[in-house]
């Protein structure tokens, strides 16, 4: 029975020649468990090929998806938070901010930029959930307010991409003031006749939903995004009843009239371009308008 005996040595690879499979080469969908290569997942803009689950992505990713040739200019990139209330929970707020800055490479929970989208100028502010839950403190409010001002002064459409747990408790009342500030700036943008589109992504809750996220000329959302004010657990405990299936999903919110439409991330750039083209005021020169009127 010599064929059962290994005559030659098996495959022997010295340790130094062994190739490790690098981390992050594969992606497993948390919804349907389908496995895809990271390259394929990235090509689909971090959505699942099988069930279309939309993964949470960062502000920088949206800038790459939307701006032509991934070229954009960031606004107020260095603004970061003070500690107006000397707030301490499990650690001091400045230490928390410093640790989060170090871990994420971000300065706060929102980034804003301007650039070209399919050849049209656009200002975008997008939130980063990994920075203290995308919470809205005074830096978030101020950066959004400034981005809106930039859009108004340059007469460019404004897109807000929200992904937030709501107000930042470490700034308490200061966080709440950002709701009023951003809303007032948006009112000024509206008076100037400049379009504002709000994209709600997973999750958009609390003071963000209750202010700028729901004030768009169009309020749109990514599929499956959680959208609400208070979380489902709090509501369930308050009303003492079970909540309907799919409660607070983008689809549920759309069905109840709080959204204009849901947009697949892969179609986002084109849909936004169409929308902005449609919203652009047709500027007819005064002289020409008078001539056409006289012909009638
Ligand atoms: Zn999936």
UniProtKB/TrEMBL annotation:
InterPro entries per UniProt: AcCoA_carboxyl_beta, Acetyl_CoA_COase_Trfase_b_su, ClpP/crotonase-like_dom_sf, COA_CT_N
A single MF term (Gene Ontology): acetyl-CoA carboxylase activity
Residue ranges occupied by any CoA carboxyltransferase N-terminal domain in the UniProt entry: 25-294
PROSITE patterns: COA_CT_NTER
Zinc finger (C4-type) boundaries: 29-51
Principal subcellular localisation of the protein: cytoplasm
Keyword Metal-binding: yes
GO terms under cellular component: acetyl-CoA carboxylase complex
This protein's UniProt keywords: ATP-binding, Cytoplasm, Fatty acid biosynthesis, Fatty acid metabolism, Lipid biosynthesis, Lipid metabolism, Metal-binding, Nucleotide-binding, Transferase, Zinc, Zinc-finger
Function (record text): Component of the acetyl coenzyme A carboxylase (ACC) complex. Biotin carboxylase (BC) catalyzes the carboxylation of biotin on its carrier protein (BCCP) and then the CO(2) group is transferred by the transcarboxylase to acetyl-CoA to form malonyl-CoA.
Family membership noted in the UniProt record: Belongs to the AccD/PCCB family.
Name this protein carries in UniProt: Acetyl-coenzyme A carboxylase carboxyl transferase subunit beta
Annotated source species: Hymenobacter gelipurpurascens
Gene: accD
């Amino acid at each position: 029975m010599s064929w059962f005996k290994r005559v030659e040595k098996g495959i022997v690879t010295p340790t130094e020649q062994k190739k490790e499979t690098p981390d992050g080469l594969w992606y497993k969908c948390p919804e349907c468990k389908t496995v895809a290569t990271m390259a394929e997942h990235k090509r689909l803009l971090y959505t699942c090929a099988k069930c279309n689950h939309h993964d949470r992505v960062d502000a920088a990713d949206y800038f790459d998806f939307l701006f032509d040739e991934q070229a954009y200019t960031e606004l107020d990139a260095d603004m970061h938070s003070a500690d107006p209330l000397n707030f301490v929970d499990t650690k001091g707020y400045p230490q928390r901010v410093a640790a989060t800055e170090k871990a994420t490479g971000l300065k706060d929970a929102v980034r804003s930029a301007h650039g070209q989208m399919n050849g049209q100028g656009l200002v975008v502010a997008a939130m980063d959930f990994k920075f203290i839950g995308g919470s809205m403190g005074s830096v978030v409010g101020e950066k959004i307010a400034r981005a809106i001002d930039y859009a108004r002064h340059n007469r460019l459409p404004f897109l807000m991409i929200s992904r937030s747990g709501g107000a930042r408790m470490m700034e308490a009342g200061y966080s709440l003031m950002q709701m009023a500030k951003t809303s007032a700036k948006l009112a000024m943008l509206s008076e100037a006749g400049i379009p504002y589109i709000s994209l709600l992504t997973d999750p958009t809750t609390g003071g963000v939903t209750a202010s700028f996220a729901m004030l768009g000329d169009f309020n749109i959302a990514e599929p499956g995004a959680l959208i609400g004010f208070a979380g489902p657990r709090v509501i369930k405990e308050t009303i003492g009843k079970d909540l309907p299936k799919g409660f607070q999903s983008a689809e549920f919110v759309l069905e109840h009239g709080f959204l204009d439409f849901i947009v697949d991330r892969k179609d986002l750039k084109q849909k936004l371009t169409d929308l902005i083209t449609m919203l652009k005021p047709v500027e007819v020169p005064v002289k020409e308008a008078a001539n056409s009127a006289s012909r009638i």
